[in-house]
Amino acid sequence: MHMEFWGQNWRQAALAAVFLIAGQAIAADPGAVRYYEDAVSRFSSGDSKGALIQLRNSLKRDPTQLPARVLIGRIHLDMGNPLQAEEALTTAEKLGADPVLTALPLARARNRLHKYDDVVDSLRPGDYPTGIQADLWVELAKARLGQGDGPGADAALAHAFKLAPDNEQALLTRVRSLLRQNKNVEAIAIGSEVLVLYPQSAEAWFLMGSAYHVQGEFDSAAANYRRAREIDPAQGRAALGEAIVLIARQRPEAAAPILADLRISHPYSMESHYYYFRVMQQLGRTGQAAEALDAASDLVNRVSPSDLDDPGHLRLAATIKFETGEYEGAFAFLTRYLEFRPDDLSANKQLARLHRKLGRPSDASRLLT
Predict the structure, then answer these.
(1) Is the pLDDT score of 85 beyond 50?
(2) Cα 136 from Cα 124, distance rounded (Å)
(3) What angle do CA 110, 112, 116 make, to 5 degrees?
(4) How far is CA 188 from CA 13, 185, 208, 223, in A?
């Protein structure tokens, strides 16, 4: 569900790239250059789809034009398509594009794809110009956090803060790290400082909502989620968070329209379909509940446990399998989840229930002793 928009900063970076690689562009086919220049103009004015069309036209004229490939990767990342971004940027690198132009967007794309090992193995922030080192250290910190390496993440963030004490992404990653460690009070304190510096940061408002949510302060959580959505209507995680809070407060009728919109805007989100199923169950709308559960189950059936590296997705997939009576599948996803969260007591209890469902009571007993 996660989608970020880099807005003007990305557009400025794209325009800067025109000058950094102008020599390559000038040497290319004149028609390809014209398409590329029009693409940059469209992208700088906010027409990302038009820019992509012109960039593809440019590559048809001259497949070797590296600036076009780099910008395609940047635009896909801007549009929330990390897989296409990674493909375009990796191809550009293989063809000889300057790593200074590809390293940061490529690391961001891989982090969004949960390819944390690739980021950690390939990224060396100190090898790049000072101007982008702080952002690269942040991406390295995100990857280490994704691997469950808290100390490694903190070490990378220390480098980022030394270079740029008020770096927004570094501060947000620090909040995420604290939330991962269940240090919610500290997370709220730092999140409040971030909002002083960056009051229009939808991600900061979302993280504050998450911290209050975990604390059980549902009114504050809902207010922060709502503010995140006001700033960035495409903030799907904030919409989901607000809906879950409303479900917890026994207000399924208020959660229903939020989740219905999410099912349209994020059709490949297991969460939106599953929680809509829950809400329809609570409202007694059995037909709509069954349809939503089928949609969630269809998404789970497209992946195997080994395809997923996000613990939250693994746990949800196990729950969906359990709801549909597919206990072997639920067992597989939950076992994979416990590789990441072995001390999760509720997950171990659910695993024991699955052992019983599958006719293995002695295994269930061993888990609970």
Answers:
(1) yes
(2) 8
(3) 50
(4) 32, 5, 6, 14
Tokens standing for residue 351: 């695993």
User: Letter for the amino acid at 175?
Assistant: V
pLDDT, averaged across the chain? 90
Q: Model confidence over 228-256: pLDDT tens digits? A: 999 998 889 999 999 999 999 999 999 99
* Mean pLDDT confidence for 291-311: 93
User: Position of tokens 């995140």?
Assistant: 228
pLDDT of residue 5: 33
Half-sphere exposure of 237 (CA within 13 A, CB side): 15
Per the rule left: phi > 0, alpha: psi between -120 and 50, beta: everything else, 198 is beta
pTM of the entire predicted model: 0.77
Token representation of residue 259: 């989740």
Q: Nearest CA to 250 among 220, 283, 273?
A: 283
Cα dihedral value 123, 85, 29, 97, nearest 10: 0
